[in-house]
Amino acid sequence: MRLVSIASGSSGNCIYVGSDNSHILVDAGINNKRIEQGLNEIGLKGSELDGIVITHEHSDHTKGLGVLARKYGVPLYGTKETLEEVSKQKYLGEYPRDLYHPICPDVDFFVGDLEVKPFSIDHDAANPVAYRIQHDHKSVAVATDMGHYDQYIIDHLQGLDALLLESNHDVNMLQAGPYPYYLKRRILGDHGHLSNENAGRLLCCILHDNLKRILLGHLSKENNYEELAYETVKLEITDGDNPFKASDFSIAVAGRDRMSEIITI
């Protein structure tokens, strides 16, 4: 399996996951040119995509869907409520609605030889999900846009080989920053985004010897920066109630405007 972040941040998200034979995107929240450039960099074309799994309907996760659907007829997977909201997004233009494939949280489905396991997350969207994706005995997950985590989330992130996890904001930067009060409350709330500290604490609950790679994603442009997210998460792991140190794992930050390195497991 391969996992690559084509883009991850508050302005746009698009993650590639694939096997030798099947290729999917988790979200398509950047323009088509950037998506195709990213695919080309890993030796693929847009025409080779087998599906796009959508976490939720916000534009930083959907803005590239229309072009890909029109150009290549790529199947679109999301919860019924998510797809209903996506269908109202006029900026996506016209594309065949028969490309929609409604899915349900905790009901697994296949895209080619990839087993996709959607699970519910708390975010201010219609019926959002994160995704765990498996092939043979390997598994990766993309988990962002979570206001908080609980045992249900922890259970769905056990035993992974690689993970892209939200590390959206630094709480102090957000509280002291220019955002209006209502927006600060939204981000900090249970249906907002995961802070650097909470990303580290969640990782402490799911670390194991065979977790090969961790990508920190969906960083806020205004309320975070890469070095801060990286160091905060490392500190939470090293000081946390777990048998590991951050140096035991390969941890990197997924860039907003650049590809991550290819994670192969």
From TrEMBL:
Q: What SMART domains does this protein map onto?
A: Lactamase_B (SM00849)
Supply the SUPFAM superfamilies for this chain. Answer: Metallo-hydrolase/oxidoreductase
Q: Fetch the Gene3D superfamilies from UniProt.
A: Ribonuclease Z/Hydroxyacylglutathione hydrolase-like
Domain Metallo-beta-lactamase, first and last residues per copy = 11-191
Q: Which domain of life is it from?
A: Bacteria
Q: Which Pfam families match?
A: Lactamase_B_2
Please name the InterPro entries in this protein's record: Metallo-B-lactamas, RibonucZ/Hydroxyglut_hydro, WalJ/YycJ-like
Recorded hits in PANTHER family, A to Z, give: EXODEOXYRIBONUCLEASE WALJ, METALLO-HYDROLASE YYCJ-RELATED
What is the protein's name according to its record?
Phosphoribosyl 1,2-cyclic phosphodiesterase
Question: Which organism was this protein described from?
Answer: Hungatella effluvii
Q: What is the lineage of its organism?
A: Bacteria, Bacillati, Bacillota, Clostridia, Lachnospirales
